[in-house]
Amino acid sequence: MLFSAILLYPVGAMKKAAVCLFLTLSPQLLPAATGYWVHNLVADASTTAKADFYDTRMINPWGFTNGGTFWLCDLGISTLYSVNATNTTPLATPNQTTAPSVPGAGGPPNKGSCTGIVSGVAGATPPNFPVTAPGKSPVAASFIFVTEDGTVSAWAGGADATQAFLQVDNSKTSAYKGLAVLTTPAPQLYAANFKTGTIDVFDANFKPVTPAPGAFMDPTIPAGFAPFNIQAIGGKLYVTYAKQDANKQYDVAGPGNGYVDVFDGTGKLLQSLLSGGPGFFGAPGAPLNSPWGMALAPATFGTFAGDLLVGNFEDGTINAFNPNTGTFLGALQDVNGNTIKIPGLWAINFGSGALVDTLYFTAGPGGQKHGILGSISANPNISASAVTNAGQIAGGIAPNTYVTIKGTDLGATKRTWGTADFGTGGTSLPTSLDGISVTLNGAPAYVEYISPIQINILTPPDLPTSGPIAVVVTDNGLASGSVNVTAQAVAPSFFLIDTAGHIAAQHANYSSVATATPAAPGETIILYGNGFGVTTPAVSKGVLQSGDAALVVAPTVTIGGTSANVVYSGLIGTGLYQINVTVPATLPNGDAPVVATVGGVSSPAGALITVHN
Protein backbone atom coordinates (compact mmCIF):
# COMPACT_ATOMS: atom_id res chain seq x y z
CA MET A 1 0.00 0.00 0.00
CA LEU A 2 1.30 3.44 -0.93
CA PHE A 3 0.86 6.09 1.73
CA SER A 4 0.26 9.60 0.44
CA ALA A 5 -0.56 10.85 3.91
CA ILE A 6 0.57 9.62 7.32
CA LEU A 7 -0.73 11.23 10.48
CA LEU A 8 1.32 10.31 13.54
CA TYR A 9 0.48 10.87 17.19
CA PRO A 10 3.34 9.81 19.51
CA VAL A 11 2.15 8.56 22.89
CA GLY A 12 5.17 7.18 24.71
CA ALA A 13 8.44 5.83 23.43
CA MET A 14 7.91 4.88 19.80
CA LYS A 15 4.72 2.94 20.46
CA LYS A 16 1.76 4.87 19.10
CA ALA A 17 0.64 5.93 15.64
CA ALA A 18 -2.51 6.38 13.61
CA VAL A 19 -2.39 6.14 9.85
CA CYS A 20 -4.74 7.52 7.24
CA LEU A 21 -4.55 5.30 4.17
CA PHE A 22 -4.85 6.58 0.64
CA LEU A 23 -4.15 4.22 -2.25
CA THR A 24 -3.09 4.68 -5.83
CA LEU A 25 -3.60 1.55 -7.91
CA SER A 26 -4.30 0.78 -11.54
CA PRO A 27 -7.60 -0.80 -12.64
CA GLN A 28 -7.82 -4.11 -14.46
CA LEU A 29 -10.22 -5.24 -17.16
CA LEU A 30 -12.35 -7.84 -15.43
CA PRO A 31 -15.43 -9.91 -16.26
CA ALA A 32 -18.74 -8.21 -17.01
CA ALA A 33 -21.64 -8.16 -14.54
CA THR A 34 -25.33 -7.22 -14.55
CA GLY A 35 -27.48 -4.42 -13.13
CA TYR A 36 -26.86 -0.67 -12.87
CA TRP A 37 -26.63 1.90 -10.07
CA VAL A 38 -27.34 5.63 -10.54
CA HIS A 39 -25.50 8.10 -8.33
CA ASN A 40 -25.82 11.89 -8.40
CA LEU A 41 -22.43 13.55 -8.09
CA VAL A 42 -23.47 17.21 -8.45
CA ALA A 43 -26.82 19.01 -8.49
CA ASP A 44 -27.66 22.69 -8.62
CA ALA A 45 -29.57 22.44 -5.32
CA SER A 46 -30.56 19.91 -2.69
CA THR A 47 -34.19 20.44 -3.72
CA THR A 48 -33.32 19.16 -7.20
CA ALA A 49 -31.72 15.91 -6.07
CA LYS A 50 -29.57 14.45 -3.32
CA ALA A 51 -25.95 14.67 -4.48
CA ASP A 52 -22.38 14.68 -3.20
CA PHE A 53 -21.90 18.35 -4.13
CA TYR A 54 -24.11 21.30 -4.98
CA ASP A 55 -23.28 24.02 -7.49
CA THR A 56 -25.88 26.70 -8.18
CA ARG A 57 -24.08 27.63 -11.41
CA MET A 58 -24.84 24.26 -13.04
CA ILE A 59 -28.15 24.84 -14.81
CA ASN A 60 -29.34 22.57 -17.64
CA PRO A 61 -26.00 20.98 -18.54
CA TRP A 62 -25.95 19.31 -21.95
CA GLY A 63 -22.65 18.07 -23.39
CA PHE A 64 -19.45 17.53 -21.43
CA THR A 65 -15.86 16.47 -22.00
CA ASN A 66 -14.60 13.43 -20.15
CA GLY A 67 -10.98 14.06 -19.14
CA GLY A 68 -9.68 14.15 -15.56
CA THR A 69 -11.63 17.40 -15.32
CA PHE A 70 -15.15 17.41 -16.75
CA TRP A 71 -16.09 20.60 -18.61
CA LEU A 72 -19.88 20.96 -18.79
CA CYS A 73 -21.93 22.94 -21.27
CA ASP A 74 -24.35 24.85 -19.01
CA LEU A 75 -26.69 27.79 -19.38
CA GLY A 76 -24.35 30.64 -20.32
CA ILE A 77 -21.18 29.15 -18.81
CA SER A 78 -19.02 26.05 -18.63
CA THR A 79 -18.57 24.62 -15.13
CA LEU A 80 -15.67 22.33 -14.22
CA TYR A 81 -15.51 19.26 -11.96
CA SER A 82 -12.58 17.07 -10.93
CA VAL A 83 -13.29 13.44 -11.84
CA ASN A 84 -10.07 11.51 -11.25
CA ALA A 85 -9.99 8.01 -9.76
CA THR A 86 -6.34 7.97 -8.74
CA ASN A 87 -5.87 11.11 -6.66
CA THR A 88 -7.28 11.95 -3.25
CA THR A 89 -9.74 14.62 -4.45
CA PRO A 90 -13.36 13.48 -4.02
CA LEU A 91 -15.05 12.70 -7.31
CA ALA A 92 -16.81 15.65 -8.97
CA THR A 93 -15.36 18.34 -6.71
CA PRO A 94 -16.46 21.67 -8.27
CA ASN A 95 -13.83 24.08 -9.53
CA GLN A 96 -15.04 27.34 -8.02
CA THR A 97 -12.48 29.57 -9.73
CA THR A 98 -12.85 28.61 -13.40
CA ALA A 99 -16.21 28.87 -15.17
CA PRO A 100 -15.79 30.65 -18.51
CA SER A 101 -18.80 32.40 -19.98
CA VAL A 102 -20.18 31.14 -23.30
CA PRO A 103 -21.48 33.94 -25.56
CA GLY A 104 -24.86 33.91 -27.24
CA ALA A 105 -26.29 35.87 -30.15
CA GLY A 106 -24.38 39.10 -30.73
CA GLY A 107 -21.57 38.05 -28.42
CA PRO A 108 -20.79 39.39 -24.93
CA PRO A 109 -22.37 40.39 -22.65
CA ASN A 110 -25.09 38.10 -24.00
CA LYS A 111 -24.73 34.51 -22.82
CA GLY A 112 -25.82 31.51 -24.83
CA SER A 113 -27.69 28.34 -23.99
CA CYS A 114 -24.73 25.98 -24.34
CA THR A 115 -25.46 22.56 -25.82
CA GLY A 116 -22.43 20.92 -27.43
CA ILE A 117 -18.75 20.94 -26.44
CA VAL A 118 -15.62 19.33 -27.89
CA SER A 119 -11.98 19.29 -26.79
CA GLY A 120 -8.68 17.83 -27.94
CA VAL A 121 -8.56 20.03 -31.03
CA ALA A 122 -5.36 21.98 -30.31
CA GLY A 123 -2.32 21.63 -32.53
CA ALA A 124 -0.58 22.67 -35.73
CA THR A 125 1.21 25.90 -36.65
CA PRO A 126 -0.54 28.20 -37.26
CA PRO A 127 -2.96 26.93 -34.62
CA ASN A 128 -6.08 24.97 -35.51
CA PHE A 129 -9.29 26.68 -34.38
CA PRO A 130 -7.45 29.86 -33.33
CA VAL A 131 -8.63 32.02 -30.45
CA THR A 132 -7.47 35.63 -30.39
CA ALA A 133 -7.85 37.85 -27.36
CA PRO A 134 -7.31 41.61 -27.66
CA GLY A 135 -3.59 42.38 -27.69
CA LYS A 136 -2.54 38.72 -27.87
CA SER A 137 -1.40 36.35 -30.57
CA PRO A 138 -3.73 33.56 -31.71
CA VAL A 139 -3.64 30.33 -29.70
CA ALA A 140 -5.30 27.00 -30.42
CA ALA A 141 -8.68 26.45 -28.80
CA SER A 142 -8.82 23.97 -25.95
CA PHE A 143 -12.62 23.79 -25.91
CA ILE A 144 -15.24 24.73 -28.49
CA PHE A 145 -18.93 25.31 -27.72
CA VAL A 146 -22.17 25.65 -29.67
CA THR A 147 -25.45 27.08 -28.41
CA GLU A 148 -29.16 26.87 -29.12
CA ASP A 149 -28.77 30.54 -30.03
CA GLY A 150 -26.87 29.50 -33.17
CA THR A 151 -23.36 30.50 -32.11
CA VAL A 152 -19.96 28.82 -32.10
CA SER A 153 -17.37 29.99 -29.57
CA ALA A 154 -13.94 28.84 -28.42
CA TRP A 155 -11.91 28.98 -25.22
CA ALA A 156 -8.18 28.89 -24.63
CA GLY A 157 -6.47 29.53 -21.32
CA GLY A 158 -3.70 31.39 -23.13
CA ALA A 159 -6.25 33.85 -24.50
CA ASP A 160 -8.58 34.59 -21.57
CA ALA A 161 -9.51 32.07 -18.90
CA THR A 162 -12.73 33.91 -18.02
CA GLN A 163 -14.54 33.67 -21.33
CA ALA A 164 -14.98 31.85 -24.60
CA PHE A 165 -14.69 34.02 -27.71
CA LEU A 166 -17.43 34.19 -30.33
CA GLN A 167 -16.30 32.66 -33.63
CA VAL A 168 -19.54 32.16 -35.58
CA ASP A 169 -22.85 33.96 -35.13
CA ASN A 170 -25.61 32.28 -37.14
CA SER A 171 -28.28 33.22 -34.63
CA LYS A 172 -30.68 34.49 -37.30
CA THR A 173 -30.87 31.14 -39.06
CA SER A 174 -29.63 28.42 -36.73
CA ALA A 175 -30.18 26.54 -33.49
CA TYR A 176 -27.22 24.31 -32.72
CA LYS A 177 -28.12 21.36 -30.49
CA GLY A 178 -24.88 19.37 -30.66
CA LEU A 179 -21.26 19.44 -31.80
CA ALA A 180 -18.63 16.95 -32.96
CA VAL A 181 -15.08 17.18 -34.27
CA LEU A 182 -12.99 14.97 -36.54
CA THR A 183 -9.29 15.58 -37.10
CA THR A 184 -8.77 13.40 -40.19
CA PRO A 185 -8.38 13.85 -43.06
CA ALA A 186 -8.58 17.51 -41.95
CA PRO A 187 -9.78 19.11 -38.71
CA GLN A 188 -13.45 20.01 -39.04
CA LEU A 189 -16.36 20.87 -36.76
CA TYR A 190 -19.84 19.46 -37.29
CA ALA A 191 -22.81 21.23 -35.70
CA ALA A 192 -26.34 19.79 -35.54
CA ASN A 193 -28.56 22.62 -36.81
CA PHE A 194 -32.02 21.72 -35.57
CA LYS A 195 -33.64 24.78 -37.11
CA THR A 196 -32.52 24.18 -40.69
CA GLY A 197 -32.38 20.40 -40.45
CA THR A 198 -28.75 20.31 -41.56
CA ILE A 199 -25.28 19.49 -40.33
CA ASP A 200 -23.21 22.69 -40.55
CA VAL A 201 -19.51 22.09 -41.18
CA PHE A 202 -16.62 24.42 -40.29
CA ASP A 203 -12.92 24.18 -41.06
CA ALA A 204 -10.00 24.70 -38.66
CA ASN A 205 -10.42 28.48 -39.01
CA PHE A 206 -14.15 28.39 -38.20
CA LYS A 207 -14.98 29.06 -41.86
CA PRO A 208 -18.05 27.32 -43.31
CA VAL A 209 -17.47 24.26 -45.47
CA THR A 210 -20.00 23.38 -48.16
CA PRO A 211 -20.55 19.61 -48.20
CA ALA A 212 -21.14 17.74 -51.45
CA PRO A 213 -24.73 17.54 -52.72
CA GLY A 214 -26.67 14.96 -50.75
CA ALA A 215 -24.23 14.98 -47.83
CA PHE A 216 -25.71 14.29 -44.41
CA MET A 217 -29.01 13.31 -45.98
CA ASP A 218 -31.15 10.22 -45.39
CA PRO A 219 -34.22 9.88 -47.62
CA THR A 220 -35.78 7.32 -45.26
CA ILE A 221 -36.25 9.90 -42.50
CA PRO A 222 -39.59 11.71 -42.93
CA ALA A 223 -39.96 15.46 -43.15
CA GLY A 224 -40.29 17.22 -39.82
CA PHE A 225 -37.32 15.48 -38.20
CA ALA A 226 -34.01 17.29 -37.82
CA PRO A 227 -30.51 16.63 -36.42
CA PHE A 228 -30.77 16.82 -32.63
CA ASN A 229 -27.19 15.85 -31.78
CA ILE A 230 -24.01 14.72 -33.49
CA GLN A 231 -21.22 12.72 -31.92
CA ALA A 232 -17.92 11.25 -33.11
CA ILE A 233 -17.64 7.56 -32.17
CA GLY A 234 -14.82 5.45 -33.55
CA GLY A 235 -13.99 7.96 -36.28
CA LYS A 236 -17.59 8.04 -37.56
CA LEU A 237 -20.30 10.64 -37.06
CA TYR A 238 -23.45 9.44 -35.30
CA VAL A 239 -26.42 11.77 -35.73
CA THR A 240 -29.63 11.61 -33.70
CA TYR A 241 -32.86 13.07 -35.06
CA ALA A 242 -35.86 14.45 -33.17
CA LYS A 243 -39.23 15.75 -34.31
CA GLN A 244 -39.40 19.53 -34.75
CA ASP A 245 -42.11 21.77 -33.33
CA ALA A 246 -43.90 24.27 -35.57
CA ASN A 247 -41.15 26.89 -35.11
CA LYS A 248 -38.38 24.33 -35.64
CA GLN A 249 -36.85 25.42 -32.36
CA TYR A 250 -37.68 22.61 -29.91
CA ASP A 251 -38.27 18.87 -30.08
CA VAL A 252 -41.66 17.21 -29.83
CA ALA A 253 -42.00 14.38 -27.32
CA GLY A 254 -43.51 11.07 -28.25
CA PRO A 255 -42.73 7.35 -28.40
CA GLY A 256 -41.01 6.55 -31.68
CA ASN A 257 -39.95 10.14 -32.30
CA GLY A 258 -36.35 9.60 -33.25
CA TYR A 259 -33.75 8.22 -35.64
CA VAL A 260 -30.02 7.56 -35.55
CA ASP A 261 -27.79 7.60 -38.65
CA VAL A 262 -24.08 7.00 -39.17
CA PHE A 263 -22.02 9.13 -41.59
CA ASP A 264 -18.38 9.53 -42.51
CA GLY A 265 -16.58 12.88 -42.32
CA THR A 266 -17.70 13.88 -45.82
CA GLY A 267 -21.36 13.36 -44.99
CA LYS A 268 -21.70 10.05 -46.83
CA LEU A 269 -24.45 7.96 -45.26
CA LEU A 270 -22.90 4.75 -43.96
CA GLN A 271 -25.90 3.29 -42.16
CA SER A 272 -29.47 4.11 -41.22
CA LEU A 273 -28.96 2.52 -37.83
CA LEU A 274 -32.06 3.18 -35.72
CA SER A 275 -35.64 4.11 -36.53
CA GLY A 276 -38.19 5.01 -33.90
CA GLY A 277 -41.04 5.08 -36.38
CA PRO A 278 -41.91 2.27 -38.75
CA GLY A 279 -38.66 0.30 -38.88
CA PHE A 280 -36.32 0.13 -41.79
CA PHE A 281 -37.48 -2.59 -44.20
CA GLY A 282 -40.44 -3.42 -41.96
CA ALA A 283 -38.47 -4.01 -38.78
CA PRO A 284 -40.06 -2.98 -35.46
CA GLY A 285 -39.37 0.60 -34.43
CA ALA A 286 -36.73 1.38 -31.82
CA PRO A 287 -37.74 2.88 -28.43
CA LEU A 288 -36.59 6.40 -29.30
CA ASN A 289 -38.07 9.59 -27.85
CA SER A 290 -35.96 12.60 -28.82
CA PRO A 291 -32.63 10.75 -28.54
CA TRP A 292 -29.62 12.93 -27.71
CA GLY A 293 -26.81 11.21 -25.78
CA MET A 294 -24.86 8.29 -27.23
CA ALA A 295 -21.98 6.14 -25.97
CA LEU A 296 -20.31 2.87 -26.91
CA ALA A 297 -20.07 0.69 -23.80
CA PRO A 298 -16.76 -0.94 -22.83
CA ALA A 299 -16.32 -4.68 -22.33
CA THR A 300 -16.83 -4.33 -18.56
CA PHE A 301 -20.24 -2.62 -18.60
CA GLY A 302 -22.39 -5.49 -17.44
CA THR A 303 -25.26 -6.83 -19.55
CA PHE A 304 -24.75 -4.26 -22.28
CA ALA A 305 -20.98 -4.54 -22.61
CA GLY A 306 -19.85 -3.48 -26.09
CA ASP A 307 -23.28 -2.15 -27.08
CA LEU A 308 -24.38 1.26 -28.33
CA LEU A 309 -26.22 3.16 -25.62
CA VAL A 310 -28.71 5.86 -26.64
CA GLY A 311 -30.32 8.21 -24.14
CA ASN A 312 -33.76 9.73 -24.68
CA PHE A 313 -34.21 13.32 -23.56
CA GLU A 314 -37.98 13.15 -23.28
CA ASP A 315 -38.49 9.94 -21.29
CA GLY A 316 -35.07 9.77 -19.59
CA THR A 317 -34.37 6.16 -20.52
CA ILE A 318 -31.10 4.72 -21.80
CA ASN A 319 -31.52 1.93 -24.34
CA ALA A 320 -28.94 -0.49 -25.68
CA PHE A 321 -28.59 -1.55 -29.30
CA ASN A 322 -26.32 -3.82 -31.28
CA PRO A 323 -23.82 -1.31 -32.70
CA ASN A 324 -23.64 -3.13 -36.04
CA THR A 325 -27.24 -4.11 -36.74
CA GLY A 326 -29.20 -1.65 -34.59
CA THR A 327 -31.11 -4.49 -32.92
CA PHE A 328 -32.76 -3.33 -29.69
CA LEU A 329 -31.31 -5.22 -26.71
CA GLY A 330 -33.05 -3.64 -23.73
CA ALA A 331 -33.09 -0.66 -21.38
CA LEU A 332 -30.76 -0.05 -18.47
CA GLN A 333 -32.42 -1.26 -15.27
CA ASP A 334 -31.71 -0.91 -11.57
CA VAL A 335 -31.10 -3.70 -9.06
CA ASN A 336 -34.86 -4.27 -8.73
CA GLY A 337 -35.41 -4.67 -12.46
CA ASN A 338 -36.98 -1.23 -12.91
CA THR A 339 -36.10 0.77 -16.00
CA ILE A 340 -33.83 3.66 -15.09
CA LYS A 341 -35.38 7.04 -15.93
CA ILE A 342 -33.47 10.30 -15.57
CA PRO A 343 -35.67 13.38 -16.13
CA GLY A 344 -34.20 15.80 -18.64
CA LEU A 345 -31.43 13.39 -19.67
CA TRP A 346 -28.85 14.89 -22.01
CA ALA A 347 -25.32 13.56 -22.47
CA ILE A 348 -24.04 10.09 -21.65
CA ASN A 349 -20.34 9.38 -21.88
CA PHE A 350 -17.87 6.98 -20.31
CA GLY A 351 -15.03 8.36 -18.24
CA SER A 352 -11.38 8.35 -19.19
CA GLY A 353 -8.29 6.74 -17.69
CA ALA A 354 -9.21 4.60 -14.71
CA LEU A 355 -12.89 5.55 -15.05
CA VAL A 356 -13.57 4.13 -18.52
CA ASP A 357 -16.01 1.62 -17.00
CA THR A 358 -18.33 4.24 -15.49
CA LEU A 359 -21.06 5.92 -17.52
CA TYR A 360 -21.51 9.60 -16.67
CA PHE A 361 -24.57 11.68 -17.54
CA THR A 362 -25.91 15.21 -17.47
CA ALA A 363 -29.54 16.23 -17.10
CA GLY A 364 -31.71 19.33 -16.95
CA PRO A 365 -34.70 18.28 -14.81
CA GLY A 366 -37.60 20.52 -13.90
CA GLY A 367 -38.16 21.82 -17.41
CA GLN A 368 -34.41 22.42 -17.91
CA LYS A 369 -34.35 24.84 -14.98
CA HIS A 370 -32.04 22.68 -12.85
CA GLY A 371 -28.99 20.51 -13.34
CA ILE A 372 -27.48 17.14 -12.44
CA LEU A 373 -24.13 15.48 -13.15
CA GLY A 374 -24.19 11.81 -12.22
CA SER A 375 -22.76 8.37 -12.81
CA ILE A 376 -24.12 4.96 -13.71
CA SER A 377 -22.16 1.84 -12.86
CA ALA A 378 -22.66 -1.86 -13.43
CA ASN A 379 -22.23 -4.58 -10.80
CA PRO A 380 -18.76 -4.53 -9.24
CA ASN A 381 -16.21 -6.62 -11.12
CA ILE A 382 -13.36 -8.29 -9.23
CA SER A 383 -10.97 -11.20 -9.71
CA ALA A 384 -9.08 -13.35 -7.21
CA SER A 385 -5.72 -12.03 -8.43
CA ALA A 386 -6.86 -8.49 -7.60
CA VAL A 387 -7.45 -9.27 -3.89
CA THR A 388 -4.12 -8.76 -2.14
CA ASN A 389 -2.46 -7.82 1.11
CA ALA A 390 -2.60 -4.01 1.21
CA GLY A 391 0.98 -3.70 2.40
CA GLN A 392 3.28 -3.82 -0.64
CA ILE A 393 0.18 -4.88 -2.66
CA ALA A 394 1.51 -8.42 -2.44
CA GLY A 395 1.32 -11.41 -0.16
CA GLY A 396 -1.58 -13.23 1.43
CA ILE A 397 -4.47 -12.21 3.67
CA ALA A 398 -4.88 -13.05 7.33
CA PRO A 399 -6.95 -11.99 10.35
CA ASN A 400 -6.77 -8.29 11.30
CA THR A 401 -5.09 -7.43 8.02
CA TYR A 402 -5.69 -4.58 5.58
CA VAL A 403 -6.61 -5.98 2.17
CA THR A 404 -6.82 -4.16 -1.15
CA ILE A 405 -9.44 -5.16 -3.73
CA LYS A 406 -8.91 -3.86 -7.26
CA GLY A 407 -11.55 -3.95 -9.95
CA THR A 408 -14.07 -1.91 -11.89
CA ASP A 409 -17.40 -0.33 -10.97
CA LEU A 410 -16.60 -0.76 -7.28
CA GLY A 411 -18.39 2.43 -6.27
CA ALA A 412 -19.41 5.92 -7.27
CA THR A 413 -17.53 7.83 -4.57
CA LYS A 414 -13.97 8.08 -3.31
CA ARG A 415 -13.09 8.51 0.35
CA THR A 416 -11.67 6.92 3.50
CA TRP A 417 -13.55 6.16 6.69
CA GLY A 418 -13.94 9.10 9.04
CA THR A 419 -15.26 10.03 12.46
CA ALA A 420 -18.88 10.02 11.29
CA ASP A 421 -18.53 6.38 10.18
CA PHE A 422 -17.61 5.05 13.64
CA GLY A 423 -21.14 5.04 15.09
CA THR A 424 -22.69 6.99 17.94
CA GLY A 425 -20.03 5.80 20.37
CA GLY A 426 -17.24 6.71 17.99
CA THR A 427 -15.54 3.31 18.20
CA SER A 428 -17.46 0.94 15.89
CA LEU A 429 -15.69 -0.05 12.68
CA PRO A 430 -17.90 0.51 9.60
CA THR A 431 -18.95 -2.46 7.50
CA SER A 432 -20.20 -0.17 4.73
CA LEU A 433 -19.21 3.20 3.25
CA ASP A 434 -21.72 4.97 1.00
CA GLY A 435 -23.54 1.69 0.40
CA ILE A 436 -20.38 -0.25 -0.50
CA SER A 437 -19.65 -3.38 1.51
CA VAL A 438 -17.48 -6.50 1.36
CA THR A 439 -18.15 -9.95 2.76
CA LEU A 440 -15.61 -12.69 3.49
CA ASN A 441 -17.26 -16.11 3.60
CA GLY A 442 -20.50 -14.21 4.12
CA ALA A 443 -19.24 -12.24 7.13
CA PRO A 444 -18.77 -8.47 6.87
CA ALA A 445 -15.34 -6.92 6.57
CA TYR A 446 -14.55 -3.40 7.78
CA VAL A 447 -14.48 -0.93 4.89
CA GLU A 448 -11.67 1.62 5.20
CA TYR A 449 -11.44 3.12 1.69
CA ILE A 450 -13.65 3.18 -1.41
CA SER A 451 -13.29 4.35 -4.99
CA PRO A 452 -14.50 3.25 -8.41
CA ILE A 453 -11.38 1.13 -8.97
CA GLN A 454 -10.34 -0.10 -5.53
CA ILE A 455 -11.58 -0.83 -2.03
CA ASN A 456 -9.52 -1.14 1.13
CA ILE A 457 -10.83 -3.38 3.92
CA LEU A 458 -9.68 -4.59 7.31
CA THR A 459 -10.34 -8.28 7.86
CA PRO A 460 -12.00 -9.29 11.15
CA PRO A 461 -9.77 -10.84 13.83
CA ASP A 462 -11.73 -14.11 13.66
CA LEU A 463 -11.13 -14.66 9.94
CA PRO A 464 -10.24 -18.32 9.29
CA THR A 465 -6.48 -18.87 9.24
CA SER A 466 -6.52 -21.36 6.37
CA GLY A 467 -8.63 -22.51 3.46
CA PRO A 468 -10.59 -20.60 0.82
CA ILE A 469 -12.22 -17.26 1.58
CA ALA A 470 -15.11 -16.18 -0.67
CA VAL A 471 -14.91 -12.44 -1.39
CA VAL A 472 -17.97 -10.50 -2.58
CA VAL A 473 -18.23 -6.73 -3.15
CA THR A 474 -21.68 -5.11 -3.04
CA ASP A 475 -22.41 -1.60 -4.29
CA ASN A 476 -25.84 -0.42 -3.15
CA GLY A 477 -27.45 -3.80 -3.73
CA LEU A 478 -25.46 -4.76 -6.83
CA ALA A 479 -23.17 -7.66 -5.97
CA SER A 480 -20.04 -8.84 -7.70
CA GLY A 481 -19.38 -12.45 -8.48
CA SER A 482 -17.74 -14.40 -5.67
CA VAL A 483 -13.99 -15.00 -5.95
CA ASN A 484 -11.90 -17.23 -3.70
CA VAL A 485 -8.61 -16.33 -2.05
CA THR A 486 -6.60 -18.41 0.41
CA ALA A 487 -6.32 -17.37 4.04
CA GLN A 488 -3.27 -17.82 6.23
CA ALA A 489 -2.53 -17.28 9.91
CA VAL A 490 -0.16 -14.37 9.29
CA ALA A 491 0.61 -12.24 6.24
CA PRO A 492 3.46 -9.87 7.19
CA SER A 493 4.14 -6.94 4.87
CA PHE A 494 5.24 -3.33 5.10
CA PHE A 495 3.40 -0.17 4.14
CA LEU A 496 5.27 1.83 1.51
CA ILE A 497 5.64 5.53 0.79
CA ASP A 498 6.63 5.36 -2.89
CA THR A 499 6.67 3.08 -5.91
CA ALA A 500 10.38 2.41 -5.40
CA GLY A 501 9.48 0.37 -2.33
CA HIS A 502 10.62 2.57 0.55
CA ILE A 503 8.92 1.59 3.81
CA ALA A 504 6.77 3.95 5.87
CA ALA A 505 9.35 4.46 8.63
CA GLN A 506 10.35 7.02 11.24
CA HIS A 507 13.28 8.07 13.35
CA ALA A 508 12.93 8.03 17.15
CA ASN A 509 11.77 11.67 17.05
CA TYR A 510 8.93 10.65 14.67
CA SER A 511 10.41 12.42 11.65
CA SER A 512 10.32 10.41 8.44
CA VAL A 513 12.99 8.04 7.27
CA ALA A 514 13.38 8.77 3.56
CA THR A 515 16.03 9.04 0.88
CA ALA A 516 16.76 12.62 1.95
CA THR A 517 16.60 11.76 5.67
CA PRO A 518 18.13 8.27 5.86
CA ALA A 519 18.55 5.97 8.82
CA ALA A 520 22.00 5.68 10.37
CA PRO A 521 23.73 2.38 11.19
CA GLY A 522 23.15 1.62 14.88
CA GLU A 523 20.01 3.80 15.02
CA THR A 524 16.70 2.38 16.24
CA ILE A 525 13.90 3.21 13.81
CA ILE A 526 10.16 2.53 13.53
CA LEU A 527 8.73 0.43 10.70
CA TYR A 528 4.99 0.25 9.97
CA GLY A 529 3.43 -2.96 8.73
CA ASN A 530 0.40 -5.13 8.19
CA GLY A 531 -0.77 -8.67 8.96
CA PHE A 532 1.80 -9.60 11.63
CA GLY A 533 -0.57 -11.75 13.66
CA VAL A 534 -2.05 -12.33 17.11
CA THR A 535 -1.44 -9.91 19.98
CA THR A 536 -1.86 -9.79 23.71
CA PRO A 537 -4.28 -8.49 24.68
CA ALA A 538 -6.26 -9.87 21.74
CA VAL A 539 -7.92 -7.58 19.22
CA SER A 540 -11.55 -6.76 19.99
CA LYS A 541 -13.83 -7.49 17.07
CA GLY A 542 -15.55 -4.59 15.33
CA VAL A 543 -14.09 -1.68 17.30
CA LEU A 544 -11.21 0.74 16.95
CA GLN A 545 -7.97 -0.41 18.54
CA SER A 546 -7.51 1.01 22.02
CA GLY A 547 -3.99 1.00 23.44
CA ASP A 548 -0.90 -0.98 22.51
CA ALA A 549 -0.93 -4.76 22.07
CA ALA A 550 2.33 -6.67 21.80
CA LEU A 551 2.70 -9.52 19.33
CA VAL A 552 2.51 -12.99 20.86
CA VAL A 553 5.23 -14.11 18.45
CA ALA A 554 7.78 -11.41 17.70
CA PRO A 555 9.08 -11.25 14.12
CA THR A 556 12.67 -11.53 13.05
CA VAL A 557 13.95 -8.79 10.75
CA THR A 558 16.87 -8.56 8.38
CA ILE A 559 18.12 -5.30 6.89
CA GLY A 560 20.50 -5.58 3.99
CA GLY A 561 20.64 -9.31 4.66
CA THR A 562 21.92 -8.75 8.21
CA SER A 563 19.89 -9.64 11.29
CA ALA A 564 18.47 -6.58 13.05
CA ASN A 565 17.55 -6.42 16.73
CA VAL A 566 13.76 -6.08 17.24
CA VAL A 567 13.15 -3.78 20.20
CA TYR A 568 9.34 -3.77 20.06
CA SER A 569 6.63 -5.31 17.88
CA GLY A 570 2.88 -4.99 18.20
CA LEU A 571 -0.32 -3.16 17.31
CA ILE A 572 -0.37 0.57 17.95
CA GLY A 573 -3.53 1.43 16.00
CA THR A 574 -6.44 -0.22 14.23
CA GLY A 575 -4.83 -2.88 12.03
CA LEU A 576 -1.50 -1.04 12.20
CA TYR A 577 1.59 -2.89 13.40
CA GLN A 578 4.76 -1.17 14.56
CA ILE A 579 8.19 -2.82 14.51
CA ASN A 580 11.04 -0.99 16.25
CA VAL A 581 14.40 -2.27 14.99
CA THR A 582 18.03 -1.29 15.32
CA VAL A 583 19.80 -0.80 12.01
CA PRO A 584 22.88 -3.08 11.85
CA ALA A 585 26.07 -1.09 12.42
CA THR A 586 27.89 -2.67 9.47
CA LEU A 587 25.53 -1.66 6.67
CA PRO A 588 26.92 0.34 3.74
CA ASN A 589 25.30 3.52 2.45
CA GLY A 590 22.31 3.18 0.12
CA ASP A 591 18.98 1.40 -0.08
CA ALA A 592 18.87 -1.75 2.03
CA PRO A 593 16.21 -4.48 1.56
CA VAL A 594 14.10 -5.28 4.62
CA VAL A 595 12.46 -8.66 5.27
CA ALA A 596 10.36 -9.58 8.30
CA THR A 597 9.49 -13.17 9.18
CA VAL A 598 6.87 -14.38 11.64
CA GLY A 599 5.32 -17.81 11.99
CA GLY A 600 7.46 -19.09 9.15
CA VAL A 601 6.05 -16.52 6.69
CA SER A 602 8.24 -13.74 5.30
CA SER A 603 7.21 -10.34 4.00
CA PRO A 604 7.39 -9.87 0.21
CA ALA A 605 10.67 -8.80 -1.34
CA GLY A 606 11.18 -5.24 -2.50
CA ALA A 607 10.75 -3.28 0.75
CA LEU A 608 13.59 -0.82 1.38
CA ILE A 609 15.00 1.73 3.79
CA THR A 610 17.73 4.20 2.94
CA VAL A 611 20.84 4.00 5.14
CA HIS A 612 23.65 6.54 5.37
CA ASN A 613 26.42 6.79 7.92
Question: What features would you describe in this structure?
Answer:
The chain has two domains: 36-378, Neuraminidase (6 Propeller); 493-611, Sandwich (Immunoglobulin-like). The chain is built from one helix and 47 strands. The protein is elongated. With 613 residues, it is an all-beta fold.
Number of discrete helical segments: 1
Number of strands: 47
Calculate the mean pLDDT score and round it: 92
Low-confidence stretches: 2-33
CATH topology annotation of the largest domain: Neuraminidase
Count of separate structural domains: 2
Give the CATH H-level superfamily of the largest domain. Answer: TolB, C-terminal domain
Strand pairing plus helix content: what structural class? Answer: mainly beta
Beta-strand level of the residues, as a percent range?
Answer: 35-45%
Give the name of the CATH architecture of the largest domain: 6 Propeller
The backbone outline, from C-alpha atoms, is elongated
The first-level CATH class name of the largest domain: Mainly Beta
